[in-house]
Amino acid sequence: MKAVLLFLITASAATANPLPNILFVLSDDHSVPHMGCYGDPNVMTPNFDRFAAEAVRFNRAYTTAPQCAPSRKSILSGRSPLGLQQTLFTLPLQADVVLFPELLKKEKGYHTGLVGRSHHLDGDSKETMLQDIHRTHDLKTTAGRFDTCQIATGGNGNETGNNALAQYRGFLDSVPTGKPFFLQLCFSDPHRGWDDAFHPHRHDPAKLKLPAHYPDLPAVRNDLARYYDEIARLDHHFGLVLEELEKRGLAANTIVLFIGDNGASQLRGKGTLYEFGLNVPLLVRWPGVAKPAVSDALVSGEDLAPTMLEAVALTPPEIMTGRSFLPLLKGGEYTPRTHVFGERGPHVGLPTQSASFDQSRTVIGTRYKLIYNALWQIPYHPVDFSGTPAWTSIAAAKKAGKLSKTMENLYLPPTRPMFELYDLEKDPAEMNNLYDSVEHAAIREDLRKRLVEWMILERDHLPLPLKPGTPKKPANKNPKPASP
Asked: What is the pLDDT of residue 313?
């Protein structure tokens, strides 16, 4: 009789507190502040804004890299791209790297899936040579890690988004009765190239309030307006995602997490270690557990894996370098990070300019940020939009004498400084480099020491920034190389 009673009590408790479903929704190339709930006065995102009112909104979430592949690998593994040896964009993830959904499946019986724009983990490339090498050595391991793994294809962002939604619904249909699920659902919007298919909102270029670091040129305005159009469509698709959960009666027991995989393909965005490259929207809704709130705590992309593991009472493996923020979600005692770190490595293409090849590192504190450009000799070049009117119009404006010196120094200098130091509180647009400031010397040295320590612990291959500059003048002055 006691055994029967104990069984009934246990069964009742399990029913009352089942394991939560976990839904990760990722956008592609989407930085803060590009949502209404983050204070952007331009973009129309009604679904995100309603969701944010029910969620914990993180203002200072940073991806570990300003590129899709290394960032997404960090999110799923709880480790930095350096620690994973995944700074090369086209490298497949090693088979022995354990992703947190694999632990959910093994330890807690989760049904797992990865759908939508999901080719990044295998380092997919259109190069036949790379495809042959990956196939020969059986390097593509993503599909075997999930119960369902599908890549959404399509001729444009809208079609790809609709295919991702169809895969999402198909995944929910496939979840065995009584099993919790994990799904990472990845949309392609607002990644370039953009299209003129369905958009729920159109943004008027003339009415936009430009970011402080944008030159006010017609082509730049047009480009930013189109970017906002793509975000509005993403918002529409996200609303359909939430609607489906409600229809199926799943919303009350599903943790829904939305994050951008890296920053916007915009000026000083994707491919850079500036705020537009690393600072991304992060919204977490957990009904009945996480009360709606706004947090300024520093969060790294590598923190998501240990947080979700602890959310289902699993201990993160020691190899994970991410730090759980579960106590923050639950409203308990939490000591936030004091610093987060980021890296930029090769992108796609030959090393002809910084869009395809760069080597930079950053440490970001609660107020100040230090950037180390190991290849300072290479000037800034935007990722994914160098041939667009938005970019070419900047050089044309300079040639015509219509570009301010400030904008010229931001976008068209022959070289970059080796070191950059910014006060994010006073200078959120990162336009005033304080590295040579005597007043900020102690801050500079503290950040430089922290960056060196992180690079050593993560086994970085770059020369360490052990000295503030050589010879007598700081390397920030960009000394000319000696003649051969």
From this structure: 98
Q: With bands split at pLDDT 50, 70 and 90, how would you rate the model's confidence at 476?
A: low
Closest to 432 in 3D by CA, of 81, 424, 237: 424
DSSP 11-80: HHHHHHSPPPEEEEEEESS--TT-SGGGT-SS---HHHHHHHTTSEEEEEEE-SSSSHHHHHHHHHHSS-
**Among all chains, which residue has been given the structure tokens 């006691």?**
2
How distant is the alpha carbon of residue 36 from its chain centre?
A: 18
Token pair listed for 165: 């939604």
pLDDT per residue as tens digits for the range 395-415: 999 999 999 999 999 999 999
As a whole number, mean pLDDT of residues 205-213 equals: 97
Question: What is the pLDDT at residue 95?
Answer: 94
Contact predicate 355/383, CB 8 Å: yes
Phi, psi for residue 114 in degrees, rounded to 5: -140, 115
What CATH class does 20-329 carry? Answer: alpha beta
Give me the pLDDT at residue 352, please: 85
Res 290: pLDDT: 98
Question: CB burial class (10 A; 0-12, 13-18, 19+) of residue 298?
Answer: buried
- Taking alpha carbons only, the member of 9, 13, 17 closest to residue 311 is 17
Integer Cα distance of 292 and 56 in angstroms:
5
Please tell me what DSSP assigns to residue 263.
-
For residue 477, what is the DSSP state? G
What is the domain partition of the chain in residue ranges?
20-329, 343-477
**Is residue 101 classed exposed, middle or buried when 0-12, 13-18 and 19+ CB atoms within 10 A define those classes?**
buried
| Global pTM value | 0.92
Contact present, 243 and 256 (Cβ < 8 Å): no
* Whether the predicted pLDDT of 13 surpasses 60: no
Residues 6+ apart with CB under 8 A from 467: 475
